[in-house]
Design a protein that fits this description.
This protein is an all-alpha fold and 72 residues long. It has a domain of 34 residues. The model has no long low-confidence stretch (mean pLDDT 89).
């Protein structure tokens, strides 16, 4: 028998995994492709932010000044 549960909150995953282990069943967790791509982009942005290669502005005015000065 196959049981598919979709859109489960992360907080319920440990309980579901424990249930499948108790029943000697297989458990497979898949994240939607969109989430995977967003997580990959987020990791890349954080990496660039930590390296100092990402332009970050405190306000919209600072952003506009950077554009006017040709920094962007």
């Amino acid at each position: 028998m196959t049981l598919i549960i979709e859109n489960v909150k992360d907080e319920f995953l440990p309980a579901l995994k424990a249930l499948t282990k108790a029943m000697n069943a297989k458990c497979r967790v898949e994240k939607p492709k969109l989430s995977k791509s967003l997580l990959k982009e987020r990791e890349e942005l954080l990496k660039n932010y930590k390296n100092g290669t990402l332009n970050v502005f405190d306000s919209h005015k600072d952003f506009v000044k950077a554009i006017d000065n040709g920094k962007i």
